[in-house]
Amino acid sequence: MSLAILLILLALWTQGALTIFLLFILGRRRLPLVADKKIAVRDIALDTSPWPEDAQKASNAFNNQFQLPVLFAIGIAITLYLGAGWPEVVLAWAFVGSRIVHATIHVTSNHVYRRFSAYVVGFCILIALWIAILVRLVLAFQTV
């Protein structure tokens, strides 16, 4: 396995670890409220509004990991199939970094403009990754 492929897989692993970490934060914020009967299960069965702000922030941060990161994972799979290169390594780690910043803002201050800025940075990096994939696909068709 090349170093580039290893680093891309580590970026993908880190994105997954971020998601799992956010789930632990979510559980830590929600479970004590239910256990202490501060939140009734029937009140949150279909509606998340009864949760306090900290629990909602963690929930939203966790849910966000199933938006852009899904396209990231698909892009990584295609990149690995085509033969990962250093541009993809840089883009993968930049994307994961942007997601860590986004999630950190989400579960702490939740400053909307900063969070949105981190989201846009990640989105632009993701677009760049998909363009790099397209270039590799076009080059692959030229050699066929």
Automatic annotation (TrEMBL):
Membrane-spanning residues: 70-96, 116-139
Tree of life domain: Bacteria
Key words of the record: Membrane, Transmembrane, Transmembrane helix
InterPro entries to which the protein is assigned, alphabetical: MAPEG-like_dom_sf, Membr-assoc_MAPEG
Places the protein is found: Membrane
Chief location category: membrane
Pfam families from the UniProt entry: MAPEG
Gene3D superfamilies in UniProt: Membrane associated eicosanoid/glutathione metabolism-like domain (1.20.120.550)
Protein name: MAPEG family protein
